[in-house]
Amino acid sequence: MTLQELYSQIQGDYDKAMQVLRMEKLLDKHIRKLPANSIFGLLAAAGESMDANALFENAHAVKGVCANLGLVKLSALASDIAEEFRPGNARRLTDAQVKQILNEIDALYQKTASAIEQYTLSA
Amino acid sequence: MLKTTQIQKPRYVLIVDDQEINRDILGAILEDDYQLLFAADGKEAMELLRVHTDIISLVMLDLMMPVMNGFEVLEAMHSDEVLQEIPVIVLTADKNAELKALQLGAADFITKPFDLHEVILARVERIVELSEGKNLISAAEHDKITALYNRSFFWEYANSLYAYHTEIHFDALVLNIEQFHSINAVHGREFGDKVLAALGQEVQAFLQQVKGIGGRFEADHFYIYCEACEDYAKVLARFQAVMDEKFKDVNVRLRMGVMRRQENMEPLSLFDHANTACNKVSGNYAQPLMIFNEEMRRREILDRKLLNDLNAAIEENQLKVYYQPKYDIQCNPPRLSSAEALIRWIHPELGFISPGEFIPLFESNGMIRLVDRFVWENAAKQIVAWRKKYGITIPVSVNVSRSDIFDFTLVDRLEALIRDNDIRHGDLKLEITESAYAEDVQKMIDLITRLEEMGFDIEMDDFGSGYSSLNMLSSMPVDVLKMDMQFIRNIESNETDRKLVTLVLEIAKHLKLTVVAEGVENEKQLHILQNAGCNLVQGFYFSRPLPPEAFEELIRREIETKRG
């Protein structure tokens, strides 16, 4: 599987990722590291305890990492959580809606991570 | 030729982000142009900053990080005098965070994701160059040792404070270290620099509390232009306490002169006065603070006037030479032996000015040479005039000041004086004040030996008032000791003084020196000196200094006594 094939499988924006990382080698390095990145687990844990601060910080981190990697959808979902819990912002979503988004993130992350693992094995 | 970029030190950029991907991206953007350091949180960043303070040109700082976030890093850097000079580019997309970061001293922002590499590189370059430019200006602005302003920037800023901040009343403070050159000489320059740096730091600390600026011009000259304080003794005491604390083994004494603000007085004049006040302190450890006052102002105005008027005084004959007789008291009755020439100034506006007012002033700037030459010439002519009129020679002592000794034309000048007036060297006696002997002893010995060989008599003036050592008496070829009047003042009532005078006379006898006692005012003193073997006496008991016409009366009397 090529990197581009992986990107089409995970519905990532390859061009956008390359715009940031410029070198396929660098993109390759970081996409391989994504499944091991603890921020997804930390975000899920923050969702369990509904710790507003932790939700903001980890969603912010997920948003940033995914944006760099052109994982547009994941980045947008994480951004919703980050804005919801940004210190000073008024809450707009119900806790249930938040959980819903977190579940979406988790599902999408699992799918993405397993595709990346397959890519890692294939290469 | 080398390009400046090749000459400059390598520039280091510290990239601080908890996400490796961000560090990698920024690293890839910057690695061709910069040396890179990486930190994954604020704590690591602070550690690297402390180790590599001198080489880091820029910090790229993520705000959201575990352990220690970007704001905390900004705060820590902002409160550190050195680290606050390193520019920071904040990595954020949050507008609210931008304002807070700006307030904490961030120089610029870069938003994530880092897609516009060329823009990022350009912004990094711009910030680094701006900061280097600022540091260059700052280096030119500041004195390296104390980080206070240097002379030109100090005046620049003092003048603009004066012009644009009229709501604040600024006083001028001048701070010096007593005998700083000796501290340097004895303990080394490096130690001297430490003393300066410590004092600079204290001045900075003081300026954290009051509005103002501080500068160091050269050596130990600190200038402070600050909001008026109530209690300057307290300010100085605090500076002194810190110096005592920091330099326990070395006595570092401060002195301070203050000029309080005056309506319409520019900083330059204000500091002139503060300087005058500070110089008045010099050497007075009991009173290290002086606030410029009316008396000093009067003195300053007078000094300026006297300095201005001296040339006219010489040309217009306002200066008069008076003569005080010296009597040989080993004869009975005592006989007129010689005279001392003394200067008087009768100023057209100020009237009679005491020599005590103008001699120290002219001594301090070398203008005393003009006065001395005037006296020498007049005395030489007077010797000739009296010789012609009365057929006897009255030798006259004249003063040779410290400045004359360093005048390389001195020997020729004196020789010409003798030749032109057709007098003998022995007719003009040269008085050199005791304190002049203390400096540059060898030069002094050489000169005196030379004058002595020419035939002049050398008299050591004010003996006993200052620094002379007995040792000097044996190495200096002097002919006459003039005992200071302080010695004589109390000899009739004070036994110690009497013993001292006797001792000096005995020593002089052994060294075959003639002794002149100055300031003899009464008969008791005269008898004591007579009995102790003193040769010559000068003082009010015989006569005050007289103008030449009045002195002639003494000559006539002397001639009559001789005949009779």
Description:
The complex is a heterodimer of chains A (123) and B (564). By secondary structure, chain A is mostly helical. Chain A has one domain (3-122): Four Helix Bundle (Hemerythrin (Met), subunit A). Chain A contains 7 helices and no strands. Chain A has helices spanning 3-9, 14-21, 24-33, 39-49, 52-68, 72-85, 95-122. In chain B, the strands form 3 sheets. An 8-stranded mixed β-barrel of chain B has the order 11-12-14-15-16-17-18-19, surrounded by 4 helices. The termini of chain B are far apart. Chain B folds into 3 domains: 4-141, Response regulator (Rossmann fold, 3-Layer(aba) Sandwich), CATH 3.40.50; 151-292, Reverse transcriptase/Diguanylate cyclase domain (Alpha-Beta Plaits); 302-553, TIM Barrel (Alpha-Beta Barrel). By secondary structure, chain B is α/β, with parallel strands linked by helices. The chains are: A mainly alpha (123), B alpha/beta (564). The interface between A and B is medium-sized, with 20 and 17 residues.
Which secondary structure elements does this structure contain, and how are they paired or packed?
The complex is a heterodimer of chains A (123) and B (564).
Chain A (H helix, E strand, L loop, with lengths): L2 H7 L4 H8 L2 H10 L5 H11 L2 H17 L3 H14 L9 H28 L1
Helix pairs in contact in A: 4-5, 4-7, 5-6, 6-7
Chain B lengths: L3 H4 L4 E5 L3 H11 L4 E5 L2 H10 L4 E7 L7 H9 L9 E4 L3 H9 L4 E3 L6 H25 L9 H14 L5 E8 L2 H8 L1 H21 L2 E5 L5 E6 L4 H15 L7 E6 L7 H15 L7 E3 L2 H22 L3 E10 L6 E13 L3 E3 L1 H11 L2 H23 L5 E5 L1 H4 L4 H12 L6 E6 L7 H14 L2 E7 L6 H6 L4 E4 L1 H5 L5 H16 L3 E4 L5 H10 L3 E2 L10 H16 L1
Parallel strand pairs in B: 1-2, 1-3, 3-4, 4-5, 9-10, 12-14, 14-15, 15-16, 16-17, 17-18, 18-19
Antiparallel strand pairs in B: 6-8, 6-9, 7-8, 11-12, 11-19, 12-13
Helix pairs in contact in B: 3-4, 8-9, 9-10, 14-16
